[in-house]
Amino acid sequence: MSVSSATAASLAMPCCRACGAELTHTLIDLGEQPVSNAFLPAGSAAAEPRFPLKVMVCGECLLAQAVHDIPADALFDENYAYFSSYSDSWLAHARAYAQAMTERFGLDATSRVVEVASNDGYLLQNFVAAGIPVLGVEPTANTAKAAIAKGVATHIGFFSKATAELLVARGIRADLMAANNVLAHVPDIVDFASGFAVLLKPQGVATFEFPHLLNLIAECQFDTIYHEHYSYLSLAAVEKIFGFAGLRVFDVEELPTHGGSLRVYACAVDADRETTANVAAMRAREAAAGLDSLAGHAGLGAAAEAARRGFLAFLETARTEGAKVAAYGAAAKGNTFLNYCAVTADDISLVADRSAAKQGKLLPGSRIPVVSPDALREARPDYVVILPWNLREEIASDLAFIRDWGGRFVVAIPGTGIF
Question: Does residue 171 sit in helix, strand or coil?
Fold first, then answer.
């Protein structure tokens, strides 16, 4: 007797988003969690939907990928909570990028820069100020409207090969395309990359920034795993994906952002751009770490469990001492971590954040209230847990006033530390 089609589907192995091969190797399983940017209204008691948060690695193309099937439009909607312009260091990063790309590729008023996932115009506003024509492509209407208000022309919608073809039909081609921290956010990564090959001019350049899988594994950055991230990327995997899409990597840089990122430069396969020595050097570094095979994709689950135990021990000590614990930064990575640790508002009384879009709401899962940073002065916590640990120096500087009453800072990744 044959099983039903539904049962057969549930028993089937998941397949790679890039090459279609069956996935058999698990990188990490963080259990079922709510969507990390699905903030709740204050006082909400409604049950939240939870989805598996598991990452597997393809044995063929080495793409590390989430195996959930939540549609992208359920994650990136008109009420999207993340606005890029609330981080001063990220705005400085964007300014430096605009200046460097303008100089390196000779951009001027006859050029066009297109950013995919342009958010609130945090990056393209720098090109606008320099008199260089731009276009943003952004699926979240609320952030796109903020960009348009700044004078950044924006196409509201998801980017894909079909979107690129639509823009080309309207007479738009790009000298430079930027995709910062979005390559991981797309379910169909090959179709997404193919859109760049369509929209670029013959000698055009696309740059992609993304957290480096090498650092995620080596430094236990498991909290960067959440449902909005469909892929976790190495240069090895990206080169294969770009090959499927008609792109070629010709340069790569290491960046300090997001705990260690790569900026990959790509062009059409037949473009006249020489491949730099940086590419071979990064290939060799990844191979030395084992990322050119499944062997290097191991150990993250045990490291995450150790980090969880360490943080829960800190909370237990604070509770025993009668210490008040607050947090800063209502970031997606923080929500992954808090839910993995099963932390609630009984453990951490509040989380402060500069984003007005998040204030007055509750964190998904943990139900910790989000408040203005000014509330920390009134609360006078003994400890402030910096959830976006990649910004620890910036945040500790901004919140230096907590030391006035003897308050201290805490980070939990790769392990719990107090400073």
Answer: coil
Rg (CA), the chain: 22
| Distance in angstroms (rounded) separating the CA atoms of residues 282 and 288 | 10
Q: What is the rounded distance in angstroms from the CA atom of residue 133 to the CA atom of residue 196?
A: 18
Other beta carbons less than 10 A from residue 73's beta carbon: 10
Which pTM was predicted?
0.86
Angle in degrees, 0-180, between the axes of helices 332-340 and 300-321, rounded to the nearest 10: 80
Cβ(366)–Cβ(335) below 8 Å? yes
The structure tokens listed for 24 are 């058999």
For 40-92, what is each residue's pLDDT tens digit? Answer: 999 998 889 999 999 999 999 999 999 987 766 666 555 554 555 557 888 99
DSSP codes of every residue in 398-413: HTGGGGGGT-EEEE-S
Q: Which residues does 297 contact at the CB level (< 8 Å), separation at least 6?
A: 25, 27, 57, 62, 64, 217, 290, 291
DSSP bridge partners of 65: 56, 231
| Residue carrying structure tokens 């006249």 | 272
Dist. CA 303–CA 120, nearest whole Å = 36
Which three-class secondary structure state does DSSP give residue 270?
coil
pLDDT tens column, 311-343: 999 999 999 999 999 999 999 999 999 999 999
What element of type H or E holds 417?
Answer: strand 417-418
What six digits make up the tokens of 345?
Answer: 């508002």
- What mean pLDDT do residues 389-405 have? 95
For residue 414 the two structure tokens come to 């790769």
Buried b (16+ CB within 10 A) or exposed e, 36-54: bbbbbeeeeeeeeeeeebb
Residue 292 has, within 13 A of its CA and on its CB side, a CA count of 8
Separation in Å, CA 70 to CA 27, 31, 52, 185, 235:
19, 15, 10, 12, 26
**How much helix, strand and coil, in percent to the nearest 5, is found in the chain?**
40, 25, 40
Q: Measured between alpha carbons, how far is 211 from 238 in angstroms, rounded to an integer?
A: 12
Distance CA 311, CA 69 (A): 30
Report how far residue 410's alpha carbon sits from residue 400's, in angstroms, rounded to the nearest whole number.
13
Q: Using the 8-state DSSP alphabet, how is residue 85 labeled?
A: G
Give the number of C-alpha atoms closer than 13 A to the C-alpha of residue 309, restricted to the C-beta side.
6
